[in-house]
Write a structure and sequence with these properties.
By secondary structure, the chain is α+β, with helices and mostly antiparallel strands. It has 13 helices and 13 strands. Strands 1, 2, 3, 4, 5, 6, 7, 8, 9, 10, 11, 12 and 13 form a 13-stranded mixed sheet that branches. A hairpin with a 4-residue loop joins strand 3 and strand 4. Helix 4 runs antiparallel to helix 10 and helix 9 packs antiparallel against helix 10. It is globular, with a radius of gyration of 22 Å. The N and C termini lie far apart (about 50 Å).
Length: about 375
C-alpha cells in the first residue's frame, strides 16, 4: 500500500504481562481484522499461555501511530539446557504449547511487517532458531528476509485434522461413516445407561474438580512426568478458563470421572480446538474416549462453533470424525557463528546422556 511504510513509526516489543494486558483492545482489533490469524494468537489464549512460558519471551509489534499493524510472539532459551548454556535458540513464544504458530498482520501489510520482524530478529542474540508448527504461509516472508548469514531448512511437517460443523448434531451424525456412526451411538447408549451417569461442563464453582479429573485421566492414559504436567497444564487450563478460552467437559459415574477433555475455543473464528483428553481404563470396553469426542462435537455445535479442530496429529480416531486437513511445517534456521558450531558438535553427546539419565530416573521407555 503506497505510503504506508513511511507512516509506520517503529517496531517495538512487549515483554511483560502488564504491557500485554494494556494492549488488549488494540490486540483484539488486530486479531479481528486478520483473517489468517489462528486462535492461538487471540488475546484470550495468549494471556492464558504466556504465564506458563518458561523461557524469556517478547512480542515484536509493528505500529502505525496507535494502531497495531502486526505482531509476532518470540522467545529465546539457552541450549542444550540452562545448566549448559552453549548457545541460544529462538522460537515462537508458545512453542510447543500452541499447535498452530504464525503471526498477526493487517491485510496488505505483510511484506513491510516481515521486513520489520526480520530486522528485529537480527538484533536479537541467538545462534539457531526452531520455528515449529507453522500454519501461516505469510511467515515464509519473514524467513525470506532472514536469508544471508543464515542457513534455513524445513525439518518436517505435521498433519492436523478438522471438520466443518453443521447446525445440528443429527446432520453431523448422518454425515459420518456408517461404522463410526453406529459404533458411537451404541457406546453412547451403553455409557449413558450406567447408574449415576452424568455429563458436565466445568463452571467457576466446580472447575477445580473437573481439572483434577482431566489431569488424572490424561496421565492414566498417556503417562509422562505427572508433576510437570500438572504444573504446566494445570496453570494453562486455569488461566484459559479465566479468560474464556476453554471448554472443559467431563463424563462421570456419580463422583467417579470416566472421561474428560479440554478444548480451546475462539468465538471470533468460530473454532473449537480439541486439545487434551483422557479416560478411565476400567471403562475401556465402552469406548469412553470415542464418546468424549462425540460429546465435545455436540457441545461445539450447540454453542454455535463452525469448526471442530483436532489440532496436532492425525490419529485414526480423529480421522473417523474429521474430513479436512491442515499441514504445518517446521523450520530450522542456523546462524553462522562459533557458538552454533560448538553446539552442533556437542548436541549428539548431550542428547545421548540425557536419554540415559531419563531411563535411570523414569525407567525404560520414559523421557524427561
Amino acid at each position: 500500500m503506497p505510503g504506508n511504510e513511511a507512516a509506520i513509526v517503529k517496531s517495538s516489543t512487549i515483554s511483560g504481562l502488564a504491557d500485554f494486558e494494556a494492549e488488549r483492545a488494540r490486540w483484539s482489533e488486530l486479531y479481528r481484522a486478520d483473517p489468517s490469524g489462528r486462535g492461538f494468537l487471540s488475546w484470550e489464549w495468549l494471556r492464558a499461555a504466556l504465564p506458563v512460558v518458561r523461557q524469556k519471551w517478547q512480542i515484536v509489534v509493528v505500529r502505525e501511530g496507535e494502531t497495531l499493524v502486526a505482531a509476532l510472539p518470540l522467545a529465546t532459551r539457552p541450549i542444550p539446557s540452562r545448566a549448559l548454556p552453549i548457545a541460544s535458540e529462538l522460537s515462537f513464544a508458545t512453542d510447543p504449547i500452541a499447535d498452530y504458530q504464525g503471526m498477526l498482520c493487517l491485510p496488505g501489510r505483510e511484506r513491510e511487517a516481515a521486513r520489520a520482524f526480520a530486522a528485529a530478529i537480527r538484533r536479537m542474540r541467538w545462534d539457531r532458531a526452531a520455528f515449529g508448527d507453522v500454519a501461516d504461509d505469510r511467515f515464509d516472508l519473514v524467513l525470506a528476509e532472514l536469508r544471508g548469514g543464515t542457513d534455513a531448512t524445513v525439518t518436517g511437517e505435521t498433519t492436523c485434522l478438522w471438520t466443518a460443523l453443521p447446525a445440528d448434531w443429527e446432520s453431523f451424525s448422518r454425515a459420518l461413516g456408517r461404522t463410526t456412526r453406529q459404533h458411537t451411538a451404541q457406546k453412547l447408549r451403553k455409557l449413558t445407561a450406567i447408574d449415576g451417569f452424568r455429563s458436565t461442563v466445568a463452571s467457576d464453582a466446580d472447575f477445580a474438580v473437573h481439572l483434577e479429573a482431566l489431569l488424572s485421566l490424561n496421565h492414566k492414559r498417556w503417562g509422562g512426568n505427572r508433576n510437570r504436567q500438572r504444573a504446566k497444564y494445570g496453570r494453562l487450563f486455569t488461566e484459559a478458563h479465566r479468560t474464556g478460552a476453554l471448554r472443559l467437559l467431563g463424563l462421570w459415574r456419580d463422583e467417579q470421572p470416566i472421561a474428560a477433555c479440554a478444548s480451546f475455543v475462539d468465538p471470533v473464528r468460530g473454532t473449537y480446538g480439541f486439545y487434551q483428553s483422557g479416560f478411565e481404563p476400567a471403562f475401556a470396553a465402552l469406548s469412553p474416549g470415542n464418546v468424549m469426542v462425540a460429546v465435545a462435537i455436540r457441545d461445539a455445535i450447540e454453542h454455535g462453533y463452525r469448526v471442530f479442530d483436532f489440532l496436532r496429529g492425525d490419529e485414526p480416531y480423529k480421522r473417523a470424525f474429521a474430513d479436512q486437513v491442515t499441514v504445518t511445517r517446521h523450520h530450522r534456521v542456523r546462524r553462522r557463528s562459533v557458538r552454533a558450531s560448538v553446539f552442533d558438535a556437542v548436541q549428539p553427546t548431550y542428547h545421548t546422556l540425557k536419554l540415559a539419565a531419563a531411563r535411570v530416573v523414569y525407567g525404560p521407555g520414559r523421557t524427561v
